[in-house]
Amino acid sequence: MNLLFAEDDVLLAQLFQLQAQQAGYQVCWVENGDAAVQQALSYQHDLILMDVQMPIMDGISAMQMLRQLGFDRPIVAMSAEEVTETGFDLVLKKPLHWQQVQQQLAQFEVIPSVALQVPAELKEAYITHVEQSLQQLELLASEEKWQEFAAIVHQFKGSAGCFGLENISELAHQFQTSWNTIPAEQKLPRATWFLEQCKACKLR
Where is the Response regulatory domain (predicted)? Predict the structure, then answer.
């Protein structure tokens, strides 16, 4: 099976490519919805895995454009949030775990069950990414740039669990659950609490 993987998180894409290729699949990776549409229309791919939140063109818009153009192959959404738009054949909840992905995609084709481990060097690269992102979050919090702050936390929610950092993923989930409803004056204390909890997590 030839997979098209549309995802703007570089390390998450590298992990998925490695896992899928070791299981015997061909994977083409693109970083945004516009590139996904262009690749999909070549009809070289049997199935598309489409992240919902991407730059240039989001996954929902890309899916809708492909359906309008008559694309009839399976398109699978990937999201840490609920997806209600019609047009996707399946919705995979982030963080993605290869065993669960295999089970869900089995409805399209029998996918071999292969137990895979996250390579140490790739996990180390992701941990470094998390550490750098936490430093960036501290700066964003000090400047009260909450839109950018929330975007990075959203990325944590969708990818940290894939690299074995379930504690970071769960903290990000808790943060997002209440973030949009709390008053403006509570955002800095809430962001500070999130950062303190993340720093307390054992990453290595």
Answer: 2-109
Q: With 80 as the cut, is the pLDDT of residue 115 above it?
A: no
Residue 190 belongs to what domain range? 120-200
Q: How many CB atoms lie within 10 A of CB 140?
A: 19
Note the pLDDT of residue 64: 95
> 191 in a domain, yes or no?
yes
Over residues 71-79, mean pLDDT:
93
Query: For the chain, what is the domain count?
Result: 2
CA-CA distance, 171 to 202, in Å (whole number)? Answer: 13
* Residue-wise pLDDT tens digits, 34-43: 999 989 988 8
Report the chain's mean pLDDT, rounded to a whole number: 88
Is residue 61 one of the residues assigned to a domain? yes
- d(CA 165, CA 197) in angstroms, rounded, equals 13
Contacts of 174 (CB under 8 A, 6+ apart): none
Tokens matching residue 153: 């936390």
Return the CATH number at 56.
3.40.50.2300
161-187: average pLDDT:
88
In a domain, 115, yes or no: no
How distant, in Å, are the alpha carbons of 61, 197, 204 from that of 171? Answer: 29, 8, 17
Do 7 and 93 belong together in one domain?
Answer: yes
Tokens of 40: 């999909």
